[in-house]
Amino acid sequence: MPLSVLERVAAETLDWGGTGMSVMEISHRSKEVAAMCSETQELIKSLLGLGEEWEVLFCQGGASLQFAMLPLNFAGPGGVCDYVDTGVWSTKAFQEAQICGAAPHMAASSESDDFTHIPDKFDFSPKPKYVYLCTNNTVRGTRWATFPQDAPGPLVGDFSSEFMARKHDLSKFGLAFAGAQKNVGPAGLTIVLIRKAFAETARKGLPRMLDYRVYLEHGSMYNTPPVQAIYVSNLIFKWLRDEIGGLAKMEELNEAKAKLLYGYIDQTGGFYRGTAQVGSRSPMNVTFRLAKGELEKPFLEEAKKEGLSGLGGHRSVGGVRASLYNALDIQAVETLISYMSAFMAKNG
Ligand code: PMP
Predict the structure, then answer these.
(1) From CA 27, how far away is CA 36, in angstroms rounded?
(2) 63 C-alpha vs ligand 1 centroid, how far in Å?
(3) Statement to judge: residues 232 and 274 lie in one domain
(4) Which residues are registered as beta bridge partners of 118?
(5) Is the CB of 158 under 6 A from ligand 1?
């Protein structure tokens, strides 16, 4: 989280906007909270350049609940929906569609290559209700550089680990969702962007909290939304707009951080080795291994002592992962590279 946002949250925890209270203590039906929520929706739309054809919903249940809401709303029992599998998060989404009784079809998968790349050949169904993909694989460190333009159905995407990290091309999407806890704010909020025309194709009669129509009809206030998480996200979006200068600038900064780190890894003669294929590399999650596997543990332990924490790869794959989310500045990447050079000099 950007320091300026944390400081503001700390100050406003005692008095938010002259109310004498924090956001946590005010009714979600109050005019102040309602105004803050609509302002947040507008901030999202304006940062992403979304027009009137889009709605912004605030959901809960993490990104994982979207894995079920999507097939429930748009596929239904036996409904054919296509998936592209790039690793754990899309695998889970596919399985969830099966559990929900839909008929998901795997249109492409990079599993046989250990999910080291984003597929570029697809076996789409003739008329899927939607085509699902995860735009950035947090675990494998892969990212879709561009999205399929000729899919036979609307794209729906899990943007969780790169939401607001670049200018997203949503032209082929009917729905995009993201858990807030990477680039946006605290856990507990899932942002769903939904195209109105796509929303109209949703099935009716689902349990209310699983029904996108209910969120649309009630302005995401059918029940109590996660107001504190929305409030922090609001401040993050203002930081993005006012201090960073918008998404194009954010993308430029993120690309520069990633270029620096991948560039360094590539010139270590294999001492450090990126796990994702070059064309599929994620600027958000830089995953790599040490050629001498036995050095990975000391690498992580010593890094922690140097104040470089959170570098362990996801528990399902191991290795090292440097997550370069929006709030992390380039100096942090430089510090990491200095540490990596010193470690290599000692152990190379
Ligand atoms: N999708 C992606 C790309 C993720 O990285 C994660 C979690 N890190 C999830 C989904 C699951 O998110 P949640 O914990 O919010 O359900």
Answers:
(1) 12
(2) 5
(3) no
(4) none
(5) yes
Nearest of 221, 234, 214, 186 to residue 27 by alpha carbon:
221
* Last-in-domain residue among 199, 219, 244: 244
DSSP-assigned beta bridge partners for residue 192:
57, 177
Question: Tens of pLDDT along 302-315?
Answer: 999 999 999 999 99
Asked whether residue 217 falls in the same domain as residue 303, the answer is no
Q: Of 244, 270, 293, which residue constitutes the final position of a domain?
A: 244
**What parts of the chain have a pLDDT lower than 50?**
none
Statement to judge: residues 80 and 123 lie in one domain: yes
Residue 286: CATH number of its domain: 3.90.1150.10
Residues 331 and 206 both lie in one domain: no
Separation in Å, CA 4 to CA 1, 132, 239, 243, 250: 9, 36, 8, 10, 16
Count up the domains in the chain and report the number.
2
Q: Note whether 91 and 139 are same-domain residues.
A: yes
In this prediction, residue 134 carries a pLDDT of 98
Q: Which atom of ligand 1 is nearest to the CA of 137?
A: 3
The atom of ligand 1 lying closest to the CA of 67 is 10
Q: What pLDDT score was predicted for residue 159? A: 98
CATH number at residue 34: 3.40.640.10
- Give the residue numbers spanning the domain of 173: 3-244
Are 256 and 173 members of one domain?
no
- 85 catalytic residue (yes or no): no
Q: What are the tens digits of pLDDT across the range 29-75?
A: 999 999 999 999 999 999 999 999 999 999 999 999 999 999 999 99
179 lines ligand 1 (CB under 6 A): yes
Q: Is the CB of 163 under 6 A from ligand 1?
A: no
pLDDT for the residue numbered 348: 84
**Relative to the CA of 159, which ligand 1 atom is closest?**
3
Tell me which of 16, 54, 82, 89 is the catalytic residue.
89
For the Cβ of 62 lying below 6 angstroms from any atom of ligand 1, the answer is yes
The confidence score (pLDDT) of residue 33 equals 95
